[in-house]
Automatic annotation (TrEMBL):
Lineage of producing organism: Bacteria, Pseudomonadati, Bacteroidota, Cytophagia, Cytophagales
Keyword Cell division: no
Organism: Hymenobacter swuensis DY53
Catalytic EC class: hydrolase
SUPFAM superfamilies registered for this protein in UniProt: Tryptophan synthase beta subunit-like PLP-dependent enzymes
Similarity-based family: Belongs to the ACC deaminase/D-cysteine desulfhydrase family.
Cofactor: pyridoxal 5'-phosphate
GO MF annotations in UniProt: 1-aminocyclopropane-1-carboxylate deaminase activity; D-cysteine desulfhydrase activity
InterPro entries assigned: ACCD_DCysDesulf, TrpB-like_PALP, TrpB-like_PALP_sf
Catalytic site positions: S61 (nucleophile)
Protein name from the UniProt record: 1-aminocyclopropane-1-carboxylate deaminase
Entry keywords, A to Z: Hydrolase, Pyridoxal phosphate
Domain Tryptophan synthase beta chain-like PALP, chain residue ranges per copy: 11-285
Amino acid sequence: MLLQPLPEPAAERAGVQLLLLRDDLTHPELPGNKWRKLKYNLQEARRLGHYTLLTFGGAFSNHLAAVAAAGRLTGLRTVGVVRGEELAQRPLNPTLARAAADGMELRFLDRTTYRRKQEPEVLAELLQQTGPAYVVPEGGSNALALPGCAELATELRALTAFDALCVACGTGGTLAGLVTGLQGAEQVLGFAALKGADFLQTNIDQLTQAATGRTYRNWALHTAYHGGGYAKLTPELRAFITQFQARHGVLLDPIYTGKMLVGVLDLLARGHFRRGSTVVAVHTGGLQAWAGFGGAPTPPGLG
């Protein structure tokens, strides 16, 4: 686990030590929070005798790519249910093409049916088509995802004391897991990558309740840094990511971590964090998403 100092002017003015946790470097093919969320789900699938993983995601889902890679690495069959009509997804974008290359069988659901994917009759019909499978929810966020994410807080604490952890949020599973791994006055700040993500407040409480039997209050959710919504890459966000890489030699992903760092630096400029505190931003990976945006930007002087 690598901790990288981020000597940002906003942090220096605020008197805050800002660090970047490079969880994107933890595994060559399954970096970041996706592997942590799958870890105990894979163990449970094997315990129950399943040889197929069935899961859900949008066309640019890092989760689908991660499950496909996990299936290839562990010898499990994988089925990915994709939101949207099949004709609209052909030819496959780079994320789905990578998943297919890793052996994932792709199935497509119209958006109306996809919204009902958790209803028993919809799920039963899918399983009738695919055969018995261990079902992993969209984004990988369930009670078994939390202990893998909680381990990140434990590993980090072995390296440094910290006051706040900052992480991007899609379905809320990573934040929920981190919350359960905190101690004392440590807090987690989540930065929603989706527009209209107020529902995450309820999701996170439900996840922690299911995993530990309790809810927590040592966290906060920020919903103003979505940059237009999921899978939206504005010129301003692309420029920020390019400039960040030029300053620190670190490429951020365009869907999650880039937006989170925009939010962290804005909160620093607003004096949100206590002077003298240590704030750790988590790079959760997801760099494969750049293929769907025409490739990652190259900062001046690095081309």
